[in-house]
From TrEMBL:
It comes from Gossypium darwinii (Darwin's cotton). Belongs to the folylpolyglutamate synthase family. It comes from the Eukaryota. Transmembrane segments: none annotated. It catalyses: (6S)-5,6,7,8-tetrahydrofolyl-(gamma-L-Glu)(n) + L-glutamate + ATP = (6S)-5,6,7,8-tetrahydrofolyl-(gamma-L-Glu)(n+1) + ADP + phosphate + H(+). One of its GO terms (molecular function) is metal ion binding. Pathway: Cofactor biosynthesis; tetrahydrofolylpolyglutamate biosynthesis. Gene3D superfamilies: Mur-like, catalytic domain (3.40.1190.10). The lineage of its organism: Eukaryota, Viridiplantae, Streptophyta, Embryophyta, Tracheophyta. Residues 114-288 form the Mur ligase central domain. Its EC number is 6.3.2.17. This is tetrahydrofolate synthase.
Length: 487
């Protein structure tokens, strides 16, 4: 669900009018982007491509596009719930690992593995930022991506370069293409990306690899890891029920599939039904499942979490537990953290500078006449939509909302960008809002509840304002939220 807030000098009388927009998937995204964003994908994907050696920009762009085409060829047309696809057999993953000779390499990685319905991407992002600020070389694998598939692979906090992406992509793709056959077909889209992540992190010799589960846990492609350092389960809810089950207990059982014998595991407070199953699964593996509680905001020394929304304090608490355990188990006991004690400076810096596109993200458009402000979030479940609505309403409920934004220019932003951001004054008034449902099948039953949640906090009208959105997304680079300097 994408929210964008618009300011006009003389706000009209607000009337809530939902405009559902059917969206088709493009370029193999695991969730669909709005058509307006899809229209600019090609220009964004090639904006940083270097000149090909002895060639031209067109040849470099052509090579990158051929890579995307090869990746897209791995998308199956069958639904996830359709078990007839031979390439979906879980045991095939181990065949792929042998072909790529990754078994030993994976066993050497010091992995943090996180599953969950909501918040697992944010938890992984916080964890990566914390450990990077502790001085470790980090690898982060998340999904989905918003603009460019390279967003899924981060090294030391930055998405992998195109040069390295192309190198590792074709290294894996060519070997799999040569060795696969009718009995062992090419891996499907997400499985290939997970294998690619393992190759990248092993080759780049990261100190820690943080893996976000794609779907479920037990049969997820990331679950080939036999001995992670620590596992985490973020908030659970109803999602992908055609695969994971119709009850919270069944869903929790699938998520708990990432638990490994005697490997420490943490979760956040869960509904009783889900918690009972998690504890039962953990007990069978001789795991003392521990509950990580929300981070106390007072521990941040007056700073704010880099990711917006009250729910992020829950994800931050889980990330702290995972990182402190990782440090202790890998022989780096630089922290003896408890829920009431002070946070080490690297933890505070990591939590207050982490960056993740499309999660309760605020992006100002300085170039628009009314200084348009976009509020972006990729909520994909009823619970996530409620959390998103609460965040959005909190940010926009009064005339001074912009002065209270948790939008802090990153250290790596150029001075011009910082100045532009500062020019977004506190005198804005929200008058219009639009939602883009980022789902392949619209469920109109979700709209009334969401709209009522928004209306009770403010006055909204749903209306299209797409050109500015296209421009802002093109000008703000992934991951860093840094405005690109025009040349």
């Amino acid at each position: 669900m994408w929210f964008l807030a618009l300011k006009f000098p003389n706000p009209p009388i607000p009337i809530p009018i939902p405009i559902p927009i059917p969206i088709s998937s493009s370029l193999g995204l695991h969730f669909s982007t709005p058509p307006l964003i899809s229209q600019i994908l090609s220009s964004i994907q090639i904006k940083n491509i270097p000149m090909a050696e002895g060639g031209s920009m067109e040849s470099a762009a052509g090579r990158y596009q051929s890579t995307l085409d090869a990746l897209s060829s791995l998308i199956t047309k069958k639904s996830r719930a359709d078990k007839s696809n031979k390439g979906d057999r879980y045991d095939l993953l181990f065949d792929y690992l042998k072909i790529l000779e990754l078994d030993e390499a994976i066993s050497q990685l010091k992995i943090i593995h996180v599953a969950g319905t909501k918040g697992k991407g944010s938890t992984c992002t916080f964890a990566e930022s914390i450990l990077r600020n502790c001085g470790f070389r980090t690898g982060l694998f998340t999904s989905p991506h918003l603009i460019d598939v390279r967003e899924r692979f981060r090294l030391d906090g930055l998405e992998i370069s195109e040069e390295k992406f192309l190198e590792y992509f074709w290294w894996c793709y060519d070997r799999l293409k040569e060795k696969t056959n009718d009995d062992v077909p090419m891996p499907t889209y997400f499985r290939f990306l997970a294998l690619l992540a393992f190759k990248i992190f092993a080759a780049e010799q990261v100190d820690v690899a943080i893996l976000e589960v794609g779907l479920g846990g037990r049969f997820d492609a990331t679950n080939v890891v036999k001995k992670p350092i620590v596992c985490g389960i973020s908030s659970l809810g109803y999602d992908h029920m055609e695969i994971l089950g119709n009850t919270l207990g069944e869903i929790a059982g699938e998520k708990a599939g990432i638990f490994k014998h005697e490997i420490p595991a943490f979760t956040v407070p869960q509904p009783d039904e889900a918690m009972h199953v998690l504890e039962e699964k953990a007990s069978k593996l001789n795991i003392n499942l521990q509950v990580a509680h929300p981070l106390d905001a007072n521990l941040l020394n007056g700073l704010k979490l880099a990711l917006e929304g009250e729910h992020q304090y829950l994800n931050a608490g889980l990330a702290i537990a995972l990182c402190s355990t990782w440090l202790q188990r890998t022989g780096h006991p630089i922290i003896n953290f408890n829920q009431t004690g002070p946070l080490p400076e690297p933890f505070i810096k990591g939590l207050t500078t982490a960056s993740l596109q499309g999660r309760a993200q605020i992006v100002p458009d300085i170039e628009s006449p009314g200084n348009l402000v976009f509020y972006l979030d990729g909520a994909h479940s009823p619970e996530s939509m409620e959390a998103c609505a609460r965040w959005f309403s909190l940010c926009t409920r009064d005339d001074n909302h912009l002065s209270n934004l948790n939008y802090q220019p990153q250290q790596h932003m150029d001075e011009g960008s910082k100045k532009d951001t500062a020019q977004v004054s506190a005198s804005r008034r929200l008058s219009l809002c639009q939602t883009y449902p980022c789902i392949t099948r619209l469920d109109p039953r979700l709209y009334p509840q969401l709209i009522l949640k928004l209306i009770c906090h403010g006055n909204l009208v749903f209306k299209e304002h797409g050109k500015a959105l296209c421009r802002v997304i093109k000008e703000w680079s992934p991951v860093t939220r840094t405005k690109l300097v025009k040349k």
